[in-house]
Amino acid sequence: MTTSTSFETLFRPRSIAIVGASSNPLAIGGQPIRYLREKSFDGDVFPINPRHAEIGGLKSYPSLAALPSAPDLVVVAVAAAMVPDIILEAGRLGVRFAIVFSSGFAETGPEGEALQVKLESAAEEGGIRIVGPNCQGMMNIADGVRLGFGVPYGLDYEVGGTSLTSQSGAFGNSIVMGLNGEGVGLRHYVSTGNEADVSTLDLIDAYLDDDGTTSVGAYVEGLRDGVRLRQIALKALRLRKPLVVWKVGNTDSGARAAASHTANLAGHAGLYFSAFRQFGIIDVDDIADMADCLKAFAAPELPASNRVLMVTLSGGAGIAMTDRTARYDLATPPLGDGLFGDLRKILPAFASVSNPLDVTAEAISGGEAFGEAIRLAGQSGAFDMVAIGLAAIGGVAATRAVTAIADMARSTGLPVTVSWTPIDEAARKGVDLLRDAGIAVYPTPARCIRGLGALWRFAEARKRLVQMSAVSSPALTQGGSTDLTTLNEAESKAILRAAGIEVPSEKLVRSADDAVAAAGTIGYPVVLKIVSRNLPHKSDIGGVRIGLGDAAAVRAAYEDIVAIPARLDRSVEFEGVLVAPMLPGGVEVIVGGMCDPALGPAVMFGAGGIHAEAFGDVAFRLAPLTRGDALAMIAETKVADLLAGFRGAPPADVEALVDLLLKVSTMLIDQRNSVCEVDMNPVFVRVQGEGADIADAVVSVTSAGPDKGELQLLRPEPAREE
Fold first, then answer.
1. Cys-Cys link to 77, which of 20, 136, 385, 566 (CB 3.0-4.6 A)?
2. Among the residues of 549-607, which ranges form H helices?
3. Contact by Cβ (8 Å): 31, 151
4. Phi and psi based region of residue 566 (left: phi greater than 0; alpha: psi -120 to 50; beta: remaining)
5. Is 344 helix (H, G, I), strand (E, B) or coil?
6. Is residue 212 located within the same domain as residue 138?
7. β-bridge partners, 191
């Protein structure tokens, strides 16, 4: 829907009508009235039910039209078939938001889908925004707005800065209660249901505009607009309001028998998580994980780098912390000689003065050594985050530890997380004091590190914000068409060449004599390859002959290749033989791209050759790429070690590889309505300064792609047939 309506009306309505209101406080239409009263909502509430004169002590009206004035917000809890007419009536009255509890729409099948289309048309006609249908409602916790059904809508919550949205109603309720139990302060919650109009991205965008929201959590099954996701993520980075997203449904639901490695390797989930990493979105996989990340963002400052100091009272806790640092890209640098000497003077002789720093329990119970140690370490300039494991302490030791930690965090400005199992009242008060100081407290050392990992992911993305913002994102026609044509290798390379991507000089032939002539022109040794759009993986059927050093070898190889289609148990469109130079080799990689139906164009990089699908060592980024994105993709893969020079080998030409990734990104954007998949495998990355060679390529185009005539103009006319 295109109507621009402030979400202030949804979040803070001053008057609410409930269509389908019930006198039963346990019924779906009765719970909102009950909860509004219990939470002291101070606006007007209008029950709508023609069978009652009064509901819950409030005057009941027969229809929306009978109200004394138009409400800000309408809640609809009636049979699905009645909903479109109610929305039309609400729109005529000037209502700007409706929450539709009613089910029986697109989630039920074709008839429900048709009814949802009718609902969307009614909303468009009436100029009214809809949350739902098939949703469980919303809460503005700070202002007592509880418009939903289910246990969570009647509970008390710690008011805070986290606003939450969920594409699941019942499970969303569990998330709300789980976050509250984990000590996450909540502000808004909206269940989006079928998202006939208001989407998850709409709500996240609105939360970012809300002054009281400091972080956003989302439970997501799918998102529909990759360009808008990028825009919202960049907005969140600019505003320093982190997005923490639990994305589920991580099987390849859109899988098909794709011709390219790229589509097989991507998987819908892989693209989502790559996009999250690219734009600083924190991905989580359960309620506790979401809580751990959201709590960490209470820290007043973000870390300047990923250098973490770990301080414990027990060697075991330090090991548990260290085991998790690599998972979250955190560095654990040594203390340095000066700091080591200072700490050695004040800590017990049996303390382990390293990183992790095991100060031992004696450092807390015996005096001020603990406080002095963390002060010295925090002020050393060697670290940008601190994780502290307090184990099970209480009493005076707990009070002393809390004071020291809060003082250190305040004086240094470093983000600090603490793992602690409070054992008495002093410890429980200490936990509250730490939280008040912006220091997140966790029950385990591993979760303590998880919080710091979330802080660094967001902080690192903010460092790239200027670079990411400088890359324009044009309005993209979403790809993912199932009506694709896979081009043969010669045609595919013609597409690449036309896009400014350098490919080797090759010749498509259809006779042995022409193959020999082409080899003489190109220069021995050469490679011969079968050309057929039905055989994208030529080496699997013996369709590639390499290292051919003379005319006799070329002629023999040609005759072998042309006989292949007859030996296969399937129909193959034989289109000729490609004569190509024998490339000098290098590190084998795969470079590709695809258009995802939800997220748009994406670029892929990984280990190439026969290892591409076997190992799945790949990374993705949404286009358009920045140079930093390209370098980050390369660094994510194991093949990065080979490119850097493995076991004495010279470094490969990473700059040439970056240039290729950026050109693929540009091609996917410029030809977004025609080119849907690109697969270059292998690409040989030569030694530093010598470039990269594309040995093979497959491009798939949509119906808007080039026709046969256009392709003939892009590549040389094949030689005559024998």
1. 20
2. 551-562, 564-567
3. no
4. alpha
5. helix
6. no
7. 166
- Residue 411: DSSP 8-state: H
What is the DSSP secondary-structure string of 103-116?
--SGGG-HHHHHHH
Whether the predicted pLDDT of 261 surpasses 60: no
Question: Residue 351 and residue 191: Cα distance in Å, rounded?
Answer: 51
pLDDT, one tens digit per residue, over 507-527 is: 999 999 999 999 999 999 999
Does any domain span residue 22? Answer: yes
CA–CA separation, 207 vs 188, rounded Å?
Answer: 8
**At residue 583, does pLDDT exceed 90?**
yes
DSSP state of 654: H
Least confident piece of the model among 209-213, 346-350, 434-438? 346-350
For the chain, helix (H) and strand (E) counts, in that order, are 26, 30
Q: How many CA atoms lie within 13 A of 96 on its CB side?
A: 15
Residue 499: inside a domain, yes or no?
Answer: no
Cα separation, 674 vs 701, whole angstroms? 5
State the CB neighbour count (10 A cutoff) for residue 543: 20
Residue indicated by tokens 């080591």: 340
Residue by residue, DSSP assigns 343-369 as HHHHS-TTSB-SSSEE--THHHHTSSH
Its domain, for residue 254, covers: 157-289
Alpha-carbon distance of 695 to 690, in angstroms, equals 15
**Statement to judge: residues 173 and 272 lie in one domain:** yes
Task: Give the mean model confidence (pLDDT) for residues 91-107.
Answer: 97
Residue 6 pLDDT class (50, 70, 90 cuts): confident
- Using 50, 70 and 90 to split pLDDT, how confident is the model at 269? confident
Around 444, how many Cα atoms within 13 Å sit in the side-chain half-sphere? Answer: 11
Q: What is the DSSP letter of 444?
A: S
Residues 275 and 213 grouped into a single domain? yes
- Measure the CA–CA gap between 635 and 627, rounded to whole angstroms: 12
Picking from 107-111, 391-395, 650-654, 702-706, which range would have the lowest pLDDT averaged per residue? 702-706
Bridge-based pairing state of the strands 215-220 and 243-247: parallel
Q: CA 661, CA 592: separation in Å to the nearest integer?
A: 8
Pick from 136, 84, 79, 123: nearest CA to 104: 79
State which of 150, 175, 200 marks the end of a domain: 150
> Which residue type occupies 500?
G
Instruction: Kindly tell me if the per-residue pLDDT of 479 is higher than 80.
Output: no
Digit-coded pLDDT (tens) for 113-148:
999 999 999 999 999 999 999 999 999 998 999 999
Would you place residue 295 in the very low, low, confident or very high pLDDT band (cuts 50, 70, 90)?
very high
Tell me how far apart the alpha carbons of residues 601 and 581 are, in angstroms, rounded to a whole number: 31
Tell me if residue 456 falls in helix, strand or coil. helix
In Å, what is the CA distance from 128 to each residue of 1, 6, 88, 118, 165? 9, 11, 9, 14, 20
Question: What is the SS3 assignment for 274-295?
Answer: HHHHHCCCEEECCHHHHHHHHH
pLDDT digits (tens, 9 = 90+) for 545-571: 999 999 999 999 999 999 999 888 777
Q: Which two tokens stand for residue 691?
A: 């470039």
484 occurs within a structural domain: no
What pLDDT is recorded for position 268? 65
Of the candidates 419, 438, 457, which is a domain's last residue? 438
Please give the average per-residue pLDDT across 645-653, as a whole number: 91
CA distances from 429 to 97, 239, 244, 279, 659 (A): 43, 32, 28, 38, 56
pLDDT at 256 over 80: no
Q: What are phi and psi of 679, to 5 degrees?
A: -140, 110
What residues contact 63, with CB distance under 8 A and at least 6 apart? 48, 50, 89
CA pair distance 596, 582, nearest whole angstrom? 35
Under 8 Å between Cβ of 577 and 528: yes
pLDDT reported for residue 3 = 36
The 3 state secondary structure assigned to 326-337 is: HHHCCECCCCCH
User: Which amino acid, 91?
Assistant: G
- Number of domains, the chain: 5
Q: How far apart are CA 56 and CA 33, in angstroms?
A: 7
